[in-house]
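Task: sequence design from structure.
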């Protein structure tokens, strides 16, 4: 069937591997190679430049792949819709997320989605930011969750949430008991950072340069878990998204202190391939994410509200007013 040949070609390109493309379609590697040859003979053009190592798509091959992946994805979605009568039940939404979008945080959305879309499910995979883009553009994932998104013509970007960036340090650190810190308070501090190729590192460096702060980078990692571990082991302080520190603060392993007069937020976005037709289940999960985006109040605002609540309770003790409003929990 001609469609099967197109699908093999698309999978070979997505995985950039004849063997993996063949495996994805249950055929041998020679059969996958033959399928691509058949397309080249039919089109009378070369799609794959095999003279290069690793092989590359020709200009014609890139053009053909862009069109074919739309055809293949739409055909598969049509088959699914016919089988299910609508696009929601039974569909598995594939999500590629950066490491710092925590499993505990996402489990809330997944559980609620399963309740609201019986039969549907979510397959969540965490990966390096660059890999998130590759996975979404290669149709290996329906949606991506990425921070400091790079504007691209081939992606649709939807804002999801803004996460306050705060100082992470040991509870006994000299800055840990402060209500807030200034960027200048970090001058000369041993600093645990992210690797230089990550967007979050570039934004962090800009933040520090903007405030004329120099830190001593003691260690660099590619994910939040390792950065937190290094801070916990006394390697230095770090700047991290506040939601990633909540459990560590609760168990008193780390402290989280907001910045005063210099707000710093990490925007996290939902991305998907521009020409991709989204299944109804994907749209439902995306709507769920955006409706209950979990955007937290900045720590400064939280502490302010708690202060107001305490003041109300004091006034209540003096016979003024009714019950004190509870401080908002996050």
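Answer:
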């Amino acid at each position: 069937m001609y469609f099967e040949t197109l699908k093999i070609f698309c999978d070979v390109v997505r995985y950039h591997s004849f063997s993996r493309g063949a495996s994805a379609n249950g055929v041998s590697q020679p059969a996958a190679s033959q399928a691509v040859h058949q397309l080249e003979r039919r089109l009378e053009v070369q799609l794959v430049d095999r003279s290069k190592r690793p092989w590359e798509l020709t200009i014609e091959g890139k053009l053909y792949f862009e069109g074919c992946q739309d055809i293949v994805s739409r055909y598969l979605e049509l088959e699914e819709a016919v089988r299910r009568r609508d696009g929601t039940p039974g569909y598995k939404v594939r999500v590629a997320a950066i490491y710092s979008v925590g499993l505990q945080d996402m489990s809330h959305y997944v559980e609620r989605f399963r309740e609201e879309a019986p039969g549907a499910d979510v397959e969540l995979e965490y990966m390096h930011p660059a890999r998130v883009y590759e996975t979404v553009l290669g149709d290996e994932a329906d949606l991506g969750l990425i921070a400091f998104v790079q504007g691209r013509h081939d992606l649709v970007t939807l804002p999801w949430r803004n996460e306050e960036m705060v100082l992470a340090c040991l509870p006994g650190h000299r800055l840990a008991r402060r209500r807030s810190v200034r960027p200048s308070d970090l001058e000369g501090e041993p600093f645990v950072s992210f690797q230089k190729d990550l967007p979050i590192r570039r934004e962090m460096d800009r933040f520090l340069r903007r405030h004329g702060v120099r830190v001593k980078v003691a260690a660099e990692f590619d994910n939040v878990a390792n950065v937190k571990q290094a801070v916990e082991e006394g390697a230095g302080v770090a700047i991290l998204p506040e939601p990633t520190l909540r459990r560590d603060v609760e168990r008193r392993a780390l402290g989280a202190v907001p910045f005063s007069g210099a707000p710093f937020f990490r925007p996290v976005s939902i991305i998907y391939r521009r020409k991709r037709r989204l299944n109804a289940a994907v749209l439902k999960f995306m709507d769920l994410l955006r409706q209950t985006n979990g955007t937290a109040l900045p720590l400064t605002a939280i502490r302010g509200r708690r202060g107001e609540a305490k003041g109300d309770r004091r006034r209540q003790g003096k016979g003024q007013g009714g019950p004190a409003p509870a401080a908002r929990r996050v």
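The two ends are 55 Å apart (CA to CA).
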